[in-house]
């Protein structure tokens, strides 16, 4: 039986073009997830990210069925989901229930589309658990363009969005358009989430979009330092997860989630030691 981790086999795998493409895509995704993550955590949007990622599967499944690019389908599905959730869940009291309703409907459609799809089962499972071999140069180009657009848009709205995230009532009283910022940010998160589906899969994209930021929030209260740490943690998780998955051939999401969880546990221990000191 092969060793669970074979260094020579991993080094050999790193020479393949598709693996290098996957690492480039993962690095871009890590930056996006790391920058957006602290805002997601501060705005209590973890469940929303989960719902958006699941509905990205619906868009990807529809794309498989129609014979078009899965990345474009997942992107379209996530954007539509983000808009619907951002517009329908404006009241905090109904936020979770709206996400649950839309999520259930979208998953039902996704299951139907996957059942109707006559192609290989690996394509279906790739939407759920990630598949690095599906990342090619066109996927990298789409990811890079979307990342630039998301980061550029975020740079414009960052300050009022941060204000609205920390104290929404005061921000609204000061004239910050919180009703407009919410759906805009939801769309930006939807784009990043959809791009993560192809790399780590929809079921576990939450670990990359939320866990590194949650760990960073445990270590510092500074928004800038939290963002930097979040990016570093996300990069370690996604790049490390891909590299560790090469030798045993295990789905990359298993390692990404494990690394993210260990980082989070370490951050919690650090915060306890710091408080005790």
TrEMBL record:
Localisation per UniProt entry: Cell membrane; Membrane
Protein's name in the database: Metal ABC transporter permease
Gene3D superfamilies linked to this entry: ABC transporter involved in vitamin B12 uptake, BtuC
Family (UniProt): Belongs to the ABC-3 integral membrane protein family.
A family per Pfam: ABC-3
Keyword Lipid metabolism: no
Species this protein is from: Kibdelosporangium philippinense
UniProt xrefs under PANTHER family: ABC-TRANSPORTER METAL-BINDING PROTEIN (PTHR30477), METAL TRANSPORT SYSTEM MEMBRANE PROTEIN TM_0125-RELATED (PTHR30477:SF0)
InterPro entries in the cross-refs: ABC_BtuC-like, ABC_TroCD
Transmembrane segments: 22-41, 62-85, 97-117, 138-161, 181-206, 226-246, 252-271
Alphabetical UniProt keywords: Membrane, Transmembrane, Transmembrane helix, Transport
Leader sequence segment: none
Its membrane topology: Multi-pass membrane protein
